[in-house]
Amino acid sequence: GQCSAHCPVGAIYENSQCGNVWNELRQTDKHVVVQVAPAVRVAIGEAFGNAPGTIMTGQMYAALRKMGFDAIFDTNFAADLTIMEEATEFVSRFTKGETLPLITTCCPSWVDYLEKYYSEMIPHFSTAKSPQMMMASMIKSYYADQKGIKPEDITVVSIMPCTSKKYEITRDDHMFSSGIQDCDYVLTTREFSRMIKQAGIDFNSLPEEEADNPLGMYTGAGTIFGVSGGVMEAALRSAYNMVTGEDLTQVNFQAVRGIEGIKEAEIDIKGTKVRVAVAHQMGNIEEVLKRVKKAQAEGGEIPYHFIEVMACRGGCIAGGGQPYGATDEIRQQRIDGLYADDTKQKIRMSHQNPYIQKIYSDFLDKPGSEKAHKFLHTHYTPRPLYQK
Ligand code: SF4
Questions:
Q1: What is the pLDDT of residue 6?
Q2: Fewest CB within a 10 Å sphere: which of 1, 75, 200, 352?
Q3: Pick from 38, 255, 264, 278: nearest CA to 160
Q4: What is the Rg, in whole angstroms, of the alpha carbon atoms belonging to the chain?
């Protein structure tokens, strides 16, 4: 079905799946599971009169429980899982001197752009799936096993700040790693707020609730995935431990924060220098890629070892599925909200999440294992629009 559009003349309709999800929730033989992305929690409140950046995680979980979801998981947990796989991939390439820079791939808009315009850079792409897709595959394998429910009796719904995430769920065969389609429906933050209103839920007065386990607990590193620079910062917090066997005492990497288009930093990991870049919005991404390609062409030293890329200005906090009308001021408020959520967490490094440790010991073996590759990694395909 189609929800109401915001286009003043009704010419543009969002392809909404609110109706499909209500239908799933009505079916008593279906186990309907939901995950919520990092950036949603600091923007959903705006639809109910709260200031941008207000953290409403507990109210969000409570609303989802009232709507009838059977299990409420958090994409932030899967962001911690993404870090385990991606930081392992980075450390392995870095120590062996293989195909650097490594470029992050959580953003499906960027993945699509790369496959069309920069397919020669595919070897530089992290093979780690995005948190949304890692969570979906873990629900229909690990969680399904634990609960004794057949994957085909589970419906996975994602709530995302992003319209591209609707495309990502069928991007290629790796999105069917459980044997069937891992994620069934994607709702934007806007669709989620409409459904809360359709259900007649008084969102602001909901008591805060917790997510369910084993896929609900998250660290500060998981929550900052929603901001530009967050994936990089989260990865560095764990990569440091993977290289040195020790934990950082100071986990804040200020140089990669904020809405400047290209952020650069040099990180010292016990005498080893790691050069990183963070780029958001396509023009800035192009510029960073140009610097890499120039160095490659001239046979010079590569300017960066690790690059984070996000298509949206400021990262997913201002994604295409968020409340309309983001300005830089609103972006900054949502960014501040996610960093506040980070510092609020007792655990701020992905590898210290006890449920992450458990999912590896119970099911995935270790980061980068054969099983981890089956469920948590993907490949990319050149899809040129025209011959150059
Ligand atoms: Fe989606 Fe934008 Fe986030 Fe990319 S940066 S995943 S397009 S919201």
A1: 57
A2: 200
A3: 38
A4: 20
**Token pair of 203, please?**
């969102």
Could you give the domains of the chain? 24-375 (3.40.50.1780)
The finding on whether 109 has its CB within 6 A of some atom of ligand 1 is yes
For residue 307, what are the β-bridge partners? 103, 277
pLDDT in tens, 284-299: 999 999 999 999 999 9
- Ligand 1 in reach of 229 Cβ (< 6 A): no
In the β-sheet with 154-160, what is the strand arrangement from edge to edge? 71-74, 31-36, 154-160, 185-188
What ipTM was estimated for this complex?
0.99
How far is it, in rounded angstroms, from Cα 41 to Cα 353? 20
107 touches ligand 1 (CB under 6 Å): yes
Q: Looking at residue 388, what is its pLDDT?
A: 52
pLDDT at 2 over 80: no
How far apart are the two ends of the chain, measured CA to CA in Å?
A: 41
Question: What are 143's two structure tokens?
Answer: 């969680």
- pTM of the predicted structure, to 2 decimals: 0.95
Query: Is 225 within 8 Å of 79 (Cβ atoms)?
Result: yes
Cβ–ligand 1 distance for 164 under 6 Å, the answer yes
Contacts of residue 298, defined as CB under 8 A and 6 or more positions apart, other chains included, come to none
Q: How far is the CA of 91 from the centre of ligand 1 (A)?
A: 25
Query: What torsion, rounded to 10 degrees, do the Cα atoms 13, 113, 133, 23 define?
Result: 10
Is residue 236 within 6 Å of ligand 1 at its C-beta?
no
- Write the pLDDT tens digit of every residue in 364-387: 999 999 999 999 999 999 998 875
| Span 104-145, pLDDT tens digits | 999 999 999 999 999 999 999 999 999 999 999 999 999 999
Alpha carbon nearest to ligand 1 atom 6, residue: 107
